[in-house]
Queue: 2 jobs
Job 1
Amino acid sequence: MNVSLEQAQKAVAAAQKKAAELELKMNIAVVDAGANLMAFARMDGAWLGSTDIAIKKAKTARFFDMPTGDIGSLSQPGGSLYNIEHSNGGLITFPGGIPLKNSKGEIIGAIGVSGSTVENDHTVAEAGTKAL
């Protein structure tokens, strides 16, 4: 089961709306179940460097089917996933990436957001997940 283009665009739009409400300039990426980019938006004035981060957050969330912030807490020194961020061509292990699920609870993709604090990135990503 994959996120459709329509769903991906809906998630991006909801995330953009939340970012605008918070007066933030964000990069927002949605990947499908195979971690392939489906939809992307770079809001006017968003950091160029956050483009890659948003995409990698979405991919990381899909590769491991958990929020990137959860992976981050497991990847600290002494943690069971220490140094995992060096795998898969580079992962992002701080908040802002969240798996997307369908109505049956099946993972169909993921969303990644970057451009502000990790707390704001997570909040905006969460808004995208709620659109589905």
Job 2
Amino acid sequence: MLRDKTAFRAVSEIADGFLDLLFPPKCPFCRKILTRPGICDDCAADLPWVDDRDAFRVIRGLYCAAPLQYAGAARRAILRFKFGGHTAAARAFGATLSACAAERYPGMFDAVTWAPISRERRRQRGYNQSELLARAACRTWATRPEALLVKTRDNPPQSGLRDASARWANVAGVYRPAPNAHLRGKRVLLIDDICTTGATLCECAQCLRDGGAAEVYALSLAMAGQ
């Protein structure tokens, strides 16, 4: 495992360079080919960014932040990424998340993790979109996220539940700390793709706190309207 951040960054940049040659980066919103991974200027100007006045939602004591509102082009791109196999978008989304974290939670965390999905869901989809986001965000910090949580059962998808109370009940007790997770005293940044009611993030955060985490802050790519 690479421990020197300069070496880690150098290796990552070389690997990214090869990827860019083989698979030219595209804007995750309009799919325009770009010279480097990111968001094209036209989309950046029109996206539904979260206003600074609404920087945080506090849900049951958990601070939640997101760079985007879950609407319009942002919603369409995230759904392609989550359900359509458009995993290449993770690099641009990760950079957007890392910028948001630097602005909203500067110096406030020393570990990064993601909301897990069940083995069955991962087998069906082929990936966990929240893990891809966490890994992409961490590349800009020359570090790696930690698998601090596991999901204990394959409950119904939150996206299929419209009622807020049903969403909260659906995730109750479905997470636990990962084996050998070292949580004592850690300040954890918890990453997920979309914050709707906040039920998943809050349940994961409580599990991390119960495992010994000192603080937990939530970050999602997009925030749905309350």
